[in-house]
């Protein structure tokens, strides 16, 4: 999954929860051999096919516009009739690169999501307001939480396990789909749109080898070239529709939006106590290992050139991703790993490593090496050469 320049960080607990439900469905399709403890031999990877045509060009141009935006303001409405949940959630979102964000839940028919929930990140501190509990969870952002792999892009949400937010899933689809123009004039909510049919873009254009399979339509406004609606049918989950009644790129945003004052009568608690919090703070490797419940790969201690700065965890228990923040000299890089990252679609150069296949990509100077191993997804990210990322991957044990 690609990264943009200094991506935005931290979205609301509400959107995080929705995405975790998505990931739970998307990652549930495993082969019988995997369940039996046998890792199947991956098939040979054919040479990627270059996709072109008006639908693909529109999809790529729209994705680039979102990825490079300095500010974003949008209204999002999600309607789900999936196995995971049924209901509607309306959210308003503001973002300013590289790290400031605010999201508010305007309406919700989902029991776990309270209308009035607010999440604010001023680049240094996070506030999460839960009106149902009348509690504000707050805490400082660790230095590790602002490393490149933990920032976000476009309309996406929390980084470090980029697939941890619903909008990140949508952004991933914009970035990694094969798009085919079905119609150049489809009316959607007062807009005249292009109807672009999307399916996962795999190395062989079939989606083979990925548990994240979907089919759907992306409706793009003819004038603004921005998304208006996304209809998806995701395997093992169901139908999801995201309507975007307003999406402004590079608007002027009042900095006061990135401040938060707790309402009268509310309690203030440490961010770590937030139920389903999106960032548990910096952990030691031992703490993260115990929390994960499965083995986390890391660079061996005898590799003295590498220094582990700490580990951050994103997500709710059982669906967390862990980001190991390393330094080698003056170069910083991260190793993100977790079951929600497994088999996600990725665009780039196919490569072989650790007995499986991976993908390398470079965007705006950032190298991203991703692969899946024993049902866990891994991603090495940093301003480092691709061959160094490969060396780091091979060191992990």
TrEMBL record:
InterPro entries, per database record: LolA/LolB/LppX (IPR029046), Sporulation_related (IPR052944)
Region (Disordered): 32-55
Protein name: DUF4367 domain-containing protein
Organism annotation: Dictyobacter vulcani
């Amino acid at each position: 999954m690609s990264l943009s320049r200094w991506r935005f960080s931290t979205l609301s607990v509400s959107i995080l929860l929705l995405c975790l439900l998505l990931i739970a469905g998307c990652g549930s399709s495993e082969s019988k051999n995997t369940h039996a403890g046998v890792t199947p031999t991956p098939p040979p990877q054919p040479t990627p096919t270059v996709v072109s045509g008006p639908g693909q060009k529109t999809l790529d141009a729209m994705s680039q516009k979102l990825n490079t935006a300095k500010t974003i303001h949008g209204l999002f409405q999600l309607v789900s009739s999936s196995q995971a949940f049924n209901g509607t959630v309306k959210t308003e979102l503001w973002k300013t690169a590289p790290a400031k964000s605010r999201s508010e839940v305007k309406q919700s028919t989902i029991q776990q999501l309270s209308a009035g929930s607010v999440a604010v990140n001023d680049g240094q501190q996070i506030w999460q307001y839960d009106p149902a509990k009348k509690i504000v969870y707050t805490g400082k952002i660790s230095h590790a939480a602002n490393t490149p792999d933990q920032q976000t892009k476009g309309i996406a949400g929390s980084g470090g396990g980029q697939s941890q937010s619903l909008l990140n899933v949508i952004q991933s689809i914009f970035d990694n789909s094969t798009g085919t123009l079905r119609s150049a004039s489809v009316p959607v909510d007062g807009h005249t749109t292009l109807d672009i049919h999307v399916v996962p873009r795999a190395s062989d254009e079939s989606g083979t080898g990925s548990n994240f399979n979907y089919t759907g339509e992306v409706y793009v406004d003819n004038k603004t070239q921005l998304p208006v609606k996304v209809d998806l049918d995701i395997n093992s989950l169901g139908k999801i529709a995201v309507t975007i009644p307003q999406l402004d790129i590079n608007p002027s945003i009042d900095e006061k939006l990135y401040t938060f004052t707790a309402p009268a009568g509310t309690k203030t608690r440490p961010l770590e106590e937030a139920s389903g919090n999106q960032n548990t703070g910096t952990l030691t490797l031992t703490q993260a290992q115990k929390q994960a419940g499965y083995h986390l790969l890391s660079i061996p201690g005898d590799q003295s050139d590498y220094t582990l700065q700490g580990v951050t965890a994103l997500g709710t228990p059982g669906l967390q991703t862990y980001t190991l923040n390393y330094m080698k000299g003056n170069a910083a890089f991260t190793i993100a790993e977790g079951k929600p990252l497994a088999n996600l679609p990725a665009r780039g150069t196919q490569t072989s490593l650790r007995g499986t296949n991976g993908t390398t990509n470079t965007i705006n100077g950032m190298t991203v090496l991703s692969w899946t191993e024993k049902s866990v997804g891994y991603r090495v990210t940093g301003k480092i050469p691709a061959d160094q990322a490969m060396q780091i991957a091979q060191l992990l044990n």
